[in-house]
Amino acid sequence: MSQLNRLARGGRIDRSRRLSFTFNGKRYQGHAGDTLASALLANGVDIVNRSFKYSRPRGIVAAGAEEPNAVVQLGKTEAGQVPNVRATQQALFDGLEARSTNGWPNVQRDLMSLVGKLGGQFMPPGFYYKTFMAPASLWMTYEKYIRKSAGLGRSPMENDPDIYDHLHQHCDVLVIGAGPAGLTAALAAARSGARVILVDEQEEMGGSLLDTRELLDDKPADQWVTEALKELAGLDNVTLLPRTTANGYHDHHFVTLHERRTEHLAETAPLKDGRRQVRSRMHRVRAGRVVLATGAHERPLVYGNNDVPGNLLAGAVSTYVRRYGVVPGKRLVLSTSNDHAYRAALDWLESGREVVAIADVRANPDGELVEQARAQGIRIIEGAAVIEAKGDSRVSGARVAKVDLDGFRVAGAVETLDCDTIASSGGYSPVIHLASHTGARPTWRDDILGFVPTLVKGVSAAGGAQGVYATAEVLADGVEAGRQAATEAGLPAASVSLPRVAARRDGTACALYQVPHEKPTLRGPKQFVDLQNDVTAAGIEVATREGFESIEHVKRYTAMGFGTDQGKLGNINGMAIAARLLGRSIPEVGTTVFRPNYTPVTFGAIVGRHCRELFDPERYTAMHQWHVEHGAEFEEVGQWKRPWYFPRQVNGKTETMHEAVARECRAVREAVGILDASTLGKIDIQGPDAREFLGRVYTNKWAQLAPGRVRYGLMCKDDGMVFDDGTTSCLGANHFLMTTTTGGAAGVLEWLELWHQTEWPELDVYFTSVTDHWATMTVTGPEARKLMAEITDIDLDKEAFKFMDWREGTVAGVPARVFRISFTGELAYEINVQANYALHVWETLFAHGDKYGLTPYGTETMHVLRAEKGFIIAGQETDGSVTPEDLGMHWAVGYDKPFSWIGQRALTRPDTARTDRKQLVGLKPRDAKVVLEEGAQIVFDPNHAIPMPMVGHVTSSYYSPTLDSGFALAVVKGGQQKMGETVYLPMADGQVHEAEIVSPIFLDPKGERQNV
Amino acid sequence: MFYIHCPYCGELREEEEFHPKGQAHIARPEDPESCSDEEWGDYLFFRDNPRGIHHELWVHAVGCRKFFNITRHTVTYEILETYKMGEQPRFTAEHPEGRPSQDGVEPAPLREGVRA
């Protein structure tokens, strides 16, 4: 296939390197240096997509990030699929495969376009919602099919083989954009010695200087670019990041840069020295100062059928001709409101093709470029504009007429010009997206007919980004911005001598957005404002008629500026149209907010290496390897991996969890079990005021706790709600060891520090986390004492070492603290040893424990055993709305303590003192085989009309092998006064379970088993 | 993401190292038991939500573990200052440009009963 639109010479492509690629399955040729878009245009591919809503054929419009139509799906392999790629930003590589994202069965013949054509008049904004509203229950069904016919590409269904990195960077000056302003800003800042990062989203740095007609120092501008980049590359304090998009401007000059390192080479990153290269990097930059040199986007004009392939931006035409050696048509009509756009006609003519005419909306255009065009013999139709494009799958003509802008009407006869390309320009819009991310609303300037960014402290804009367009001024503006940034960073100002640029006299531009048509907007041909979201001028008119006056509402109603486009081409035109219809000025109507990301970022780059095993840190106890070797199934508790249960092989079959837990429970109740409890939070508390402090943060009394004793404590917030519990042991007069729940450890430590540092700094007390320093193993069951006696020198006599005592001694020959506390209700010893001795102690216990039936158990068995005893778990029985009284734990509340401890005052507020609060109770299902669902809602009357008043919920529920029955803990309104009453649990499947309210203590209510 | 100067470490660090702990200068009443229910409810639940200068309590959670205060503008998110517990802010709603320094004169507390 020949590249019929490729010029014989010119452009920055490498004609010696031919690249082959496919688009929609068809093979084409391009050159190194092409983008996918320039190669498609070179091959005369007109239709690259179908539009989002109306399925109209669409072609390439722009040459950069603002391209709304040529959004394609890349990928030869399933794993290599990439959606949302702008063809204008994708460098061509050999073997590239791309497809249109819309269009069925294909983009050339699209069935949905019939809907667009026939239904066109009947598809106003909100069409889908209005049409498919009833019945509401079917919306999900409709949506499935609507989504299928819309959308912009699809995600890969296989794992991404590529590697992505995050880099954390700091710099004095971050310069975004490496066009004329960015380059001089970077030079000025870098010569001052500032640490500079210069980023540019394109394949090559240089911006508009890569395709300008102007000369710098009497030489082609790209030569100056080469020199400037050479100097910057040679400086140690400068980092150049080409192919890098500044996508988000976050708080305090935190900017995320997405650097694409291999996407110009291949679909997935090629190998280098046998290793896969990093596909892209996310630079997380904390910049001292930022210079926005992001340039400006040209605004297209809004006229009839301005979406037919062959309608392009004037500047894009110049870029394709001068940078890529591609002329995207044969006969050009230009419609413009300003001088700049004349370059497109001059470049077109120089490429040897015909310029049919220039329709200039101004009455007497007289700038230098206008005169050059006249001198070349180009026909200029003054006071006129293209009001409508002819053609279906490609422009076949332009209807041109004189227009009266004040009256918004066509003011003369319509002439139809024979052409295949229409270029349009309504002027420029500074690229203010990044400044908008900071939350600053932009300011409208009538003199440049555009919004300029409002800048927060530490940010400056230079060149096109703040409405400065003449090359000489842009270069100087960049120097000024770079110099100022360096000075603010405390560095001496450096001098940058600017290249000579011939001054050019430009005529004044005219404000033109929507072009009037002979017919009213609602009846005329479609005039597209936002091509990507298929928003038309008529759509905006309908929105304003229906009462949407705020531009933010117009945006949401019409979808203008949504999605991956973020309003790059259409937003200002849309606002101008809304302003005209509402009889207001553009600044009065205001702008919508542009949001990150500027262009789509692949998820891989956002995730970086934080995936798979590096997704989150994992914490292991000292005995972890033993658990693994003994077949434990693990449960995640925060970042901890805890053994859940230890299934055994029985008759060649692995036990189910139910079987394993039943066996483990019986072992503890009848012989002896062991639990790895190392993950419990441990906080070492020391200081003369440690005891006083405990009295203030716990609900119960600590004044009398003697060394060698242990006490259970409840912790509340000042609203009176329980938030953690645990035991605290007195190690010495001024020394305590607090334990917390596994998940609550970090939060409790922060809580203690909060009160100490902000309220009671006068208390002399210190907190140290020792969770990882001590390993904890719980030996529990009737045989526990016999087993312990074999391996410890501590006196285990039941009078010498009572329940809720702790003793120091050796266990298995290593120093240990042993605590007689019980979370199972059985005789229990919690052994604490230095973590690196723990495996030895654990294994010694097993060496001696076999004859007693020592059985390792996991968290599931722990839960069953503690629930049988009615022991709560903070965060399971409690949810931040449960007081100690609600838990029936008044025995752990010291109302008469001298200091008003945290939570005390709140317990007498009317709401906390209510008697019908949800209170902790036990539930015994009427059918012993039933294990109630945790979280199931409880009602008193199952025959009540829906919605039934819900009076509580199940907090914990298990099967108890000891009771041979299901049982549950629950909170029920006024439950403590309802013992023996029946409640009901209606389930999603229609079943209603029945249960009896009982005491939450199901086993050994007097605690005789743990006291032996 | 904020860039926060820890007044104890003396360094600017990333927000990820810190936890926000709500409005600053909320002192616990000296004698909770003598508070009316309404007063106690105010202390527990009522917080300012200003458009503009706001004083916040933060902790350098994975750094030095110290609590300190931040004066932040809730519109621009600019952090005007950070200061240690027990100190008073220089930037306030009344003095958005910073109050004049009066050596030796303690500025009036921000709220009744402020201790920290």
UniProtKB/TrEMBL annotation, chain A:
Domain GCVT N-terminal: 623-897
Limits of the SoxA A3 domain: 525-606
Highest taxon, organism lineage: Bacteria
Ranges of residues in domain FAD/NAD(P)-binding: 172-470
Alphabetized UniProt keyword annotations: Aminotransferase, Oxidoreductase, Transferase
Pfam families linked: Fer2_4, GCV_T, GCV_T_C, Pyr_redox_2, SO_alpha_A3
Record flagged with keyword Oxidoreductase: yes
Domain Aminomethyltransferase C-terminal, first and last residues per copy: 918-1004
Matches recorded under InterPro entries: 2Fe-2S-bd_N (IPR042204), FAD/NAD-bd_sf (IPR036188), FAD/NAD-binding_dom (IPR023753), GcvT/YgfZ/DmdA (IPR028896), GcvT/YgfZ_C (IPR029043), GcvT_C (IPR013977), GCVT_N (IPR006222), Sarcosine_oxidase_asu (IPR006277)
PANTHER family registered for this protein in UniProt: AMINOMETHYLTRANSFERASE, AMINOMETHYLTRANSFERASE, MITOCHONDRIAL
Stated family: Belongs to the GcvT family.
Protein name per its UniProtKB record: Sarcosine oxidase subunit alpha
UniProtKB/TrEMBL annotation, chain B:
Provenance organism: Halomonas rhizosphaerae
InterPro entries: SoxD, SoxD_sf
Protein's name according to its UniProt entry: Sarcosine oxidase subunit delta
Pfam families xrefs: SoxD
Residues covered by region (Disordered): 88-116
